[in-house]
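Reposting from the mailing list since nobody answered there.

I have sequence plus structure tokens for a pair of proteins and want to know whether others read the tokens the same way I do. The first protein:
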Amino acid sequence: MTEQRGKEAKGDPSPLLMAISELMALRALELAGKRIPSRRGGRSLWDRYKDVPPWEIHTIFPVRPEELDKILANAWAIPLRIGVPTSLVEALDMHVRALLIAGRAFDRTDLRLTLSRTSFDDTKLPWVKGASIE
């Protein structure tokens, strides 16, 4: 069964891996989105775009590469603290950074493609029985 999961993760990501990855990516986009208006003009932008969810604000205000580290500061602290493998966090970080720079909204199909290109084995997730943490 472990071999099956390992093979699955190299092709089409498992539902567990997709769900966890989606939550982590959207949370990082949300944190970034809450920081973008303060870097673009402050409170007046919040009032003007109050109907835009924070995880989508970058579609209106794409982020410059030099801003990425500041707006994503601590975005991955909780996943790393609870044992999500570094290799998965790094893949998600690269994915989120690309979305922020491109001003592109989160899309499950894009995430699935990103995860299918990694060699991540979902049996290493801390929630999977018998998982070994990196």
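The second protein, same order (residues first, tokens after):
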Amino acid sequence: MSFERFLADLKQQAVAGGVSQNAIAEASPYLLYDQGIVNRDRGQRVFGQVFTEFAGRMAASYRMQQGQARIKTYAAAFARAEKEYGVPPAVIAAFWGLESDFGANMGNLPTLRSLVSLAYDCRRSQMFANETIAALKIIDRGDLTPTEMVGSWAGELGQTQFLPTHYFNYAVDYDGDGSRNLLRSPADVIGSTANYIANGLKWRRGEPWLQEVRVPAASTFPWEQADLTIQLPRSKWALLGVSYADGKALPSDNLPASLLLPMGRMGPAFLAYPNFAAYTEWNNSLIYSTTAGYLANRTADATSCGAGRSTAVQRTARAAAIAGARRLQRRQGRWRDGLAEPQRGEGHADQIRHAPRLLADRRTAGTDARPSRTADPTGGNGRAIELMRENSRPDGSRRAALLRSWVKQTSSRGAGTACVSKDVATGKTAIQTRKSITCPSTPQPCRLFCKFLAASPES
């Protein structure tokens, strides 16, 4: 079908959905096909950062401080949103900061062009046809003009990057000017984000979302329970020796929680509560979701307790960066064990700053508790799950190769997220995955991976 014929059909669907002819006429000059947008969608690459690298960059202190500043500046809007929707200010501020740096980076591409181009492409045609119609409804309602609709290449709009369907359904007029402007009105951004989290993502008022914890190193600890589909009462986690990151005891109550280990048993640990499902629904990348929850915690803790507390996430990131820099310099003859200062006049801070970038470029499987490869497709659906298995072969080379092959297959189908990491203490390889229950094209990769997990180390 030609683009012109497709566009005519799409306009008819919009009219049937309640969009006025005036809105369609106003938008028509912007409903153009752009092959570059389709190329960007098809050319999405594998996401190759581990949690501490991503969180170290995206949940940095400056973003936490900016979030605290916004909470103070717009205290009335945040208080109103928390009262009406039950969503804490730090949760809203964390998404606001991660999605656009509080409005500084919303994208600069024409939204209608992006949406209609992706709707014409065969991959997710119906989804983006619906998003295009929703964008036309936003114009028809008077919230934005076609010229104002500028955002990311995938069609998200505003300072918390709403898809048009979310914008149309959940945007609220919090500043009382008669329109819902998520590009220019901080009050509208705060109220609309709270509305979406509460009613679209089913936030549970008054409950936590993610808490950093300390897990005992005992060999008897039931590591197989570290699974987002397994929820135990906090009292049970306390009996197993899990405590808060500062060593304080967990409450002995029945609040359900899952143990989340984004980098395996030697990395940071979290208790993920039912509200964490809102994060995985917002973005089905487990690394992004964990980072967003972690940033919200940092913002909330700093607001109430001061910002100077070091966490296991920060300590792990720092230790990994230093170790990685030393390994790289040993290879290059630029570091000697026991040497107090780096050779060739390089500063210690420079090694720490550049180590994550250098380590991210390495693709060797299962070394030093760093995932070898993580698939982060955008089209995954279904409930997020995490499966942990161990390989008795110390090098983990064969399973890592099989896993990378599986990730390549599933990434092309949008089926899920996977990574492999190595436990420093035991030398065993840990395998984690978040995947859709149903693969969009064929269930074969999921079946292969389940078979692969169940196979013996030598199979």
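Reply #1 (J.P.):
I read it the same way you do. The radius of gyration is 24 Å.
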